From TrEMBL:
<dbReference type="InterPro" id="IPR037997">
    <property type="entry name" value="Dgk1-like"/>
</dbReference>
<keyword id="KW-0472">Membrane</keyword>
<feature type="transmembrane region" description="Helical">
    <location>
        <begin position="243"/>
        <end position="261"/>
    </location>
</feature>
<keyword id="KW-1133">Transmembrane helix</keyword>
<dbReference type="GO" id="GO:0005789">
    <property type="term" value="C:endoplasmic reticulum membrane"/>
</dbReference>
<protein>
    <submittedName>
        <fullName>Predicted ER membrane protein</fullName>
    </submittedName>
</protein>
<keyword id="KW-0812">Transmembrane</keyword>
<dbReference type="GO" id="GO:0006654">
    <property type="term" value="P:phosphatidic acid biosynthetic process"/>
</dbReference>
<dbReference type="GO" id="GO:0004143">
    <property type="term" value="F:ATP-dependent diacylglycerol kinase activity"/>
</dbReference>
<feature type="transmembrane region" description="Helical">
    <location>
        <begin position="273"/>
        <end position="292"/>
    </location>
</feature>
<feature type="transmembrane region" description="Helical">
    <location>
        <begin position="135"/>
        <end position="152"/>
    </location>
</feature>
<feature type="transmembrane region" description="Helical">
    <location>
        <begin position="204"/>
        <end position="223"/>
    </location>
</feature>
<feature type="region of interest" description="Disordered">
    <location>
        <begin position="1"/>
        <end position="34"/>
    </location>
</feature>
Length: 295
């Protein structure tokens, strides 16, 4: 004879026992057994992992399309510098027009999901995931380039753009390639007696890569290369660049500037595409002015 408790379970269509002693829940309508709360949570987690965690391709992980575009700007800059136009006004106006177009596209992207979907379908590979819901990094890139071309001496402006184009790319690429190496530690939080804050995401390998790239670019540019040994289109000569040791000294300084400015821990809202050319250019200009006057 069934006990009242067992009769109640049978009336509800459930059975708490099985042949192996494990809990089993069945229904009288022929559906699958009802999972326990713990099993249900596990299944949800597995389903979420399958739907959310997807392997990233090499091109996405290392931002290959973005880095190629980044680096190509340096090549275009050198070509335009070799042409040596009498004025940079047409170039600055063209870049300003491009800035208006890119900024306008971003405004529409924020307001129109349909446009945003189309925009990201074509230009998504050139964007970081973090830029999908904020201003495109190209905007800050153009602002920085326009700033240095407008206000800095031509050779300093060109060198600033090369640092942005190549030193930044080298730091990011090498840092990611060696991110799992035990010989590639993170940079300290602060240097120079705590005066310079460094980003917690920057590594020693990326720092060294930026330093070496900045050094090579400066020596190549000023040591008889497109920089003309310090001549800025016949405007002014930097005295420090008239001797080889001066070029080497300048290259070492530029490498140091490129590495530290690239690794800065920036306040929220600031983009390194903006700060890198402006800050590095200002420091290089100050260095050339000081050394050419007092050395």
């Amino acid at each position: 004879m069934a006990t009242p408790r067992r009769s109640a379970r049978l009336a509800n269509g459930t059975n708490s026992g099985s042949g192996n002693g494990s809990p089993l829940q069945t229904t009288t309508n022929g559906h699958h057994p009802v999972l326990s709360e713990e099993d249900s949570i596990k299944d949800q987690l597995k389903s979420s992992a399958v739907n959310v965690i997807k392997p990233r391709s090499f091109w996405a992980t290392y931002e290959v399309p973005r880095k190629l575009l980044h680096s190509s700007i340096g090549v275009v800059t050198l070509i335009l510098n070799a042409i040596d136009p009498p004025t940079l006004t047409p170039l600055i106006l063209s870049l300003s027009a491009g800035l208006v177009i890119v900024t306008g596209a971003d405004v529409i992207r924020f307001k129109s999901p349909v446009f945003a979907k189309t925009y990201e379908a074509y230009l998504g590979p050139l964007m970081r995931d973090s830029e999908r819901h904020k201003w495109n990094g190209v905007i800050w890139y153009l602002v920085g380039v326009i700033f240095v071309l407008t206000l800095y001496p031509r050779d300093v402006a060109v060198l600033s753009i090369l640092i942005l184009s190549w030193a930044d790319t080298a730091a990011s690429t090498i840092g990611r390639l060696l991110s799992k190496s035990k010989y590639n530690p993170r940079l300290p939080a602060r240097v120079c007696f705590g005066l310079i804050p460094l980003s917690p995401n920057k590594s020693l390998a990326g720092f060294v890569a930026a330093w070496m790239t900045g050094l090579i670019v400066a020596v190549g540019y000023y040591g008889g290369g497109p920089g003309g040994g310090g001549s800025r289109g016949g405007q002014v000569d930097w005295r420090v660049l008239e001797w080889r040791r001066g070029v080497a000294f300048t290259g070492s300084f530029v490498g140091c500037v490129a590495a530290y400015v690239e690794a800065l821990d920036l306040p929220a809202g600031l983009d390194d595409n903006l700060t890198l050319p402006i800050v590095s250019g200002a420091l290089v200009w100050a260095f050339l002015s000081f050394t050419s006057r007092f050395l």
